[in-house]
Every structure is written in structure tokens, then in C-alpha cells.
């Protein structure tokens, strides 16, 4: 079984105790690389040196800069954003979006390259919201309406970083075609899906399930109605209004993008898109830029707390518990004190009691 499973040996009783150096090496490697420890990490573990704080932190930094951290980008980043395997998404209407299948692979790749760069270069967690750069190939640049660098014209396999994308209506996870396409319907956008995704995935808010008997919205807005008008009419139901007041404004702000993530000013019927909205706390904003500013100011701590919660849960391979709250609180505090660098969050997790210790055998059985 030890060949197939990542086993650890708890001590008798209920008290927590440190994992062995070998077990710590395995935890660290599967956290950052989704694979077994390499020779350097294994050698330090065998020598009994890995649990030394300075050595552990040094290995963490080395591993983050390695190309194998792409696996963390896939397994954590893309999974957190719900964009993983977008290249296999086969739910878009060919009639409405005939180009989607040709671009879905590139859409899937963009968040992975973004997260890989973020971890390798110890970027700011807030870059997930306000980055003025992204990564594109020729296929994605054409999809976004960007003028590609001459190097991109040679092959769709050539990827490069492009700066100044906020001026082109992109920047951060809110501008990823992958997130915008995934949180849309087959033939139209869905402010509800996008708003719910932002509320739950990025801010960590728990929303109640929709009440029974709520009518299903049509796949296409009736003639003369924008998607937004369709949602506003649906949200007028008193049974639904409470939740929709919380999530719909986020979705309305992103209506400047169609169901496969392209920028637009009018919908398929030629009706003008309105991205002006008011959040549940009374803040008025307009479009992606306004939503980004709102998240970076009013909701910044909630966003970073959710990032820390998700990263900790991924690192530990379990749901975050009430006992983890002090660590998350400190993580938010230290991020603010250290330019919001993602390495700060990773190092705090790796040095934490939760990551370095294991519950006693009696506790595990209970």
C-alpha cells in the first residue's frame, strides 16, 4: 500500500506530534508539485535536516521557482477558479459561438500560465484582481482582439506575456475568457452564474439554495430584452430578491463580455449593454474596472482571506476547520505587511503546526 498511497504514521494517544522528515518532504512536494520529492528534498529528509525552519523555507522557495510548480497552478489555481478542463467543455452552442471549440484550449491555458508565473515570481495575491498583464498565444490574442507580437504569428504554440491589458478591458481573473465562458450559458451570458461564482469562489460567501419552484430561465432572451433585463425581471420575485441583490450586481458589471469571454458593447440582438450597477452595500460601479476597484478596496480582506482559506485547505488535503481560523487571520495580516506576496502565504502554511504535525492515532480513529 505504501507504494500506491501517501501514508503517515500517527503516534498513540490523542496528542498531535510532528510528522517525520520523510513525511514532511512528501507533504511539501505534493503540495507544490503534486508529485513525490525530488533527490534534493529526499536527501535533506534522510539527513534529518528538513524540519529545520530555515531549511524548510529554503526548499519551499526553490520548489516554487521550479517549472514543476505548474502542477500547483493546475491543481490549485485552475481548480479554485473552476476553469480546469475548460478545453474539454462541449456545452456552447455551435450556432451562436462557432469559434469556441478552436479557442477553448487557449482559454484553458491562460489561467494556468498566470498562476505559474505568480508562484514562480512571488507575485502579489492582489494581481489576481488587478494585474496589468496576461499570457496569450496567437489564437487567444485574436479572440481577445489584441494585436499579437510578430512572434505569436508563427505558431499557436508560442505563448508570451502581454502588458498593458487593462487598457484593453482585461486584467486579472475577472478578465480571463476562461472564467467568463465557464460562468455563462450555452447561448447567452448569465449574470447570475457569474455573480454567484464571484461571491462564493472569490469572496467565500455562502448563499442559500434557490427556493423550490423557481422558473428556469430560457436559453435565449426574448426579443427586445437584454440578458440583464431578463435577469432583472426574474429577480423581481420576492422569494429570490434577497440573494439576487447580493450576486446580480457582480454579474451585471461583467456584461461587457459575451458567453465566450469576448468584449462587447451590444448583445447578439444589437441591444446596448449596460454595465452600471449598485452592490448590496450601496456602492455604485460600472463594468470590469469598477468591479475590480470595489474588490480591491471594500472587499480586499475578504478576497485575501478566501485565497488563504483555499490554499490552506489544498495544502492540507482537507476542509478548513474552526481551529485553522487563527492561522488564516494571521495570514491575512502578514500578507498586508509583506506587499501581499504569495510566497508569504505559502511559507506560513508550510511552517504551520497544521502542516508539520499529525493528530494522534486515537484522534484519527475518532
Helix run count = 17
Percent of residues in helices:
40-55%
Strand content: under 5%
Integer-rounded radius of gyration: 22 Å
The secondary-structure class comes to mainly alpha
Order the strands across the largest sheet as they lie in space.
1-6
> What would the principal axes of the Cα set say about the shape?
globular
Largest sheet: 2 strands, antiparallel
Measured between the Cα atoms of the first and last residue, the distance is 23 Å
Low-confidence stretches: none
The strand count comes to 6
Helix-strand sequence? EHHHHHHEHEHHHHEEHHHHHEH
Average pLDDT number: 91
Structural description of this entry:
This protein has 17 helices and six strands. The radius of gyration is 22 Å and the shape is globular. The strands form three sheets. It has a two-stranded antiparallel ribbon with strand order 1-6. It has helices spanning 21-32, 39-46, 53-65, 70-81, 100-120, 127-130, 138-144, 177-182, 191-202, 227-235, 238-253, 287-297, 300-316, 325-337, 342-351, 353-356, 361-365; strands at residues 17-18, 133-136, 160-163, 276-278, 284-286, 357-358. A hairpin with a 5-residue loop joins β4 (276-278) and β5 (284-286). The two termini are 23 Å apart. α3 (53-65) packs across α15, α9 (191-202) crosses α11 (238-253) and α14 (325-337) runs antiparallel to α15. With 366 residues, the protein is mostly helical.
Amino acid at each position: 500500500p505504501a507504494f500506491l498511497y501517501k501514508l503517515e504514521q500517527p503516534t498513540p494517544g490523542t496528542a498531535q506530534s510532528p510528522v517525520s522528515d520523510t513525511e514532511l518532504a512528501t507533504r511539501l512536494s505534493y503540495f507544490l508539485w503534486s508529485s513525490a520529492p525530488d533527490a534534493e528534498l529526499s536527501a535533506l529528509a534522510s539527513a534529518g535536516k528538513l524540519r529545520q525552519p530555515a531549511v524548510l523555507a529554503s526548499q519551499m522557495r526553490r520548489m516554487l521557482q521550479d517549472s514543476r510548480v505548474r502542477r500547483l497552478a493546475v491543481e490549485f489555481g485552475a481548480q479554485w477558479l473552476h476553469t480546469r478542463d475548460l478545453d474539454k467543455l462541449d456545452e456552447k452552442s455551435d450556432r451562436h459561438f462557432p469559434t469556441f471549440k478552436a479557442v477553448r484550449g487557449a482559454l484553458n491555458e491562460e489561467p494556468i500560465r498566470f498562476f505559474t508565473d505568480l508562484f514562480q515570481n512571488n507575485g502579489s495575491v492582489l494581481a489576481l484582481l488587478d494585474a496589468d498583464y496576461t499570457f496569450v498565444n496567437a489564437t487567444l490574442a485574436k479572440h481577445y482582439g489584441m494585436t499579437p507580437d510578430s512572434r505569436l504569428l508563427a505558431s499557436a504554440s508560442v505563448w508570451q506575456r502581454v502588458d498593458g491589458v487593462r487598457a484593453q478591458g482585461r486584467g486579472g481573473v475577472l478578465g480571463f475568457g476562461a472564467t467568463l465562458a465557464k460562468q455563462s450559458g450555452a447561448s447567452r451570458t448569465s449574470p447570475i452564474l457569474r455573480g454567484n461564482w464571484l461571491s462564493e469562489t472569490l469572496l467565500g460567501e455562502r448563499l442559500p439554495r434557490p427556493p423550490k419552484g423557481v422558473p428556469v430561465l430560457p436559453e435565449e432572451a426574448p426579443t427586445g430584452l437584454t440578458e440583464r433585463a431578463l435577469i432583472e425581471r426574474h429577480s423581481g420575485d420576492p422569494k429570490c430578491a434577497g440573494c439576487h441583490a447580493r450576486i446580480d450586481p457582480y454579474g451585471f458589471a461583467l456584461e461587457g463580455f459575451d458567453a465566450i469571454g469576448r468584449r462587447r458593447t451590444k448583445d447578439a440582438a444589437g441591444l446596448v449593454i449596460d454595465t452600471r450597477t449598485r452592490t448590496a452595500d450601496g456602492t455604485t460601479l460600472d463594468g470590469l474596472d469598477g468591479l475590480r476597484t470595489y474588490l480591491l478596496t471594500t472587499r480586499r480582506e475578504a478576497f485575501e482571506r478566501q485565497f488563504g482559506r483555499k490554499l490552506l485547505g489544498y495544502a492540507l488535503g482537507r476542509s478548513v476547520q474552526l481551529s485553522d481560523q487563527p492561522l488564516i487571520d494571521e495570514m491575512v495580516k502578514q500578507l498586508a505587511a509583506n506587499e501581499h506576496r504569495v510566497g508569504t502565504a505559502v511559507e506560513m502554511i508550510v511552517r504551520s503546526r497544521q502542516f508539520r504535525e499529525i493528530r494522534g492515532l486515537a484522534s484519527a480513529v475518532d
